DNA sequence: AGGTATATAGTCGTCTTCGACTAGTTCATA
DNA sequence: TATGAACTAGTCGAAGACGACTATATACCT
């Protein structure tokens, strides 16, 4: 399973989902994705969109139906989904829901090199992160609540936003505890940690012990 | 802040971190990253590594020190970090720890199109995900415990693995609840949801209501 | 002696992805 | 009525990332 897809950008999934509903041209896809908040969960960039659309067409998952011209605007090509496209959409979607995949986050990369900073600085930075996460999650939660009630949209259509909020809140709780644990010396002796930075800013071991292989 | 870095692949951060310790050649970086488990938190690919190293050299963040040849093996170039490289490493690391950044996950993309499947199938897929997550988190936890005690490595050097495990466990709990909520009709009426799929497999609204903008 | 699996140490070409740019249209406003 | 912002609808070139491939050395097995 999880064999290589010919068009692997998740934006392609969104394109197929939209064309599953009805034929439309790329710019309309952008508009609809924005209206529905899908650009919060699927990275949307014009330049990628047009490449993705070409790739999908090349692979026979969508087809150009007609090109229309509106006044002197550039002409717009209207695409529709094919049978193969419908199948691919469903297969892909099932796979995404069924199979957890490893993601590499920026924060994980940062944490990997935490010993690269002295403990006091690490604590200060993480405390700043806590503040920013508090603000961010607060805003997410209120936007979520107001979106739900204003349009009385079933939660079904907001589930990805709830997921994002959940991840952020989990991170927030974890970082709060992490800060306390660092201060309590529970990650390792603070003096040893500090000593990695003693000689004129040179680290003697940025990555720590030699034989970690988790 | 968070202005564009000239070399933005997180692998570059790892390269600078390693060269902060001492000069070495690219293949040795791979070996060290593997030994220390850094490839779990920073995506490591040979081909990317060599591009990243060239880019860092081009930008003056690292320099080639010497090239040595060992028998008839290809020659290896040994790189060292520059002053600019040290600064860039620290600045970048601070930014990663201080500023939360939005990440787009595969699962979030999948969730966005959840209404594209009938509720019974969605539940089945998510239950399968729960099983896989249980297995995965179980393995992660035992590897983490054994790594800590076998080498009695301070937690400081495992913090990114703890972070990853925390995220997975949070997801697991959330998906379990989600399944129950779907079954209880708390995301929206199951019959309405089903009706999106009634006409010979055609969806009438893959993305749901028209005016969501969370 | 021969075969093969694994570790070493990369190169190359292709496909993807992105940021920057173009260019016409509509609308408010001074 | 000129002017500048915001919206519409993309194109293009360059850089980035990845998979597939190459080639030697060494250890192990039979």
Short structural summary:
With 214 residues, chain A is mainly α. Chain A is 57% helix and 6% strand.
Fraction of residues in β-strands of chain A: 5-15%
Most extensive interface, chain pair and sizes: A-B, 95 and 94 residues
The overall average pLDDT of chain A, rounded, is 89
Strand order of the largest sheet of chain A: 1-2
Q: How large is the count of helical segments of chain A? A: 8
Radius of gyration of chain A: 24 Å
State the low-pLDDT regions of chain A, or none: 201-214
What is the strand tally of chain A? 2
Quaternary state of the chains: homodimer
Order of helices and strands of chain A: HHHEEHHHHH
- Amino-to-carboxy terminus distance of chain A: 25 Å
Q: Strand count, sense and closure of the main sheet of chain A? A: 2 strands, antiparallel
Structural class call of chain A reads mainly alpha
Helix content, binned percent of chain A: 55-70%
Form type of chain A: elongated
Tally of discrete structural domains of chain A: 2
Keywords for this entry:
DNA-binding; disordered C terminus; 8 helices; 2 domains; mainly alpha; Arc Repressor Mutant, subunit A; 214 residues; 57% helix; homodimer
């Amino acid at each position: 399973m999880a064999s290589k897809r010919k068009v692997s950008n998740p934006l392609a999934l969104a394109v197929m989902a939209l064309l599953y509903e009805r034929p439309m041209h790329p710019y309309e896809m952008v508009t609809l994705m924005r209206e529905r908040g899908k650009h919060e969960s699927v990275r949307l960039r014009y330049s990628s969109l047009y490449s993705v659309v070409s790739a999908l067409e090349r692979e026979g998952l969508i087809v150009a139906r007609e090109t229309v011209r509106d006044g002197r605007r550039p002409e717009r090509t209207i695409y529709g989904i094919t049978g193969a496209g419908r199948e691919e959409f469903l297969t892909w979607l099932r796979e995404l829901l069924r199979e957890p995949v490893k993601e590499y986050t920026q924060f994980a990369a940062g944490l990997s090199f935490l010993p690269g900073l002295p403990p006091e600085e690490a604590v200060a930075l993480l405390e700043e992160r806590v503040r920013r996460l508090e603000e961010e999650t607060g805003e997410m939660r209120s936007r979520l609540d107001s979106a739900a009630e204003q349009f009385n949209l079933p939660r079904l259509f907001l589930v990805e936003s709830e997921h994002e909020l959940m991840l952020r809140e989990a991170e927030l709780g974890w970082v709060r505890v992490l800060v306390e644990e660092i201060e309590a010396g529970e990650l390792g002796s603070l003096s040893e940690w500090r000593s990695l930075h003693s000689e004129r800013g040179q680290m003697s071991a940025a990555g720590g012990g030699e034989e970690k292989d988790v």
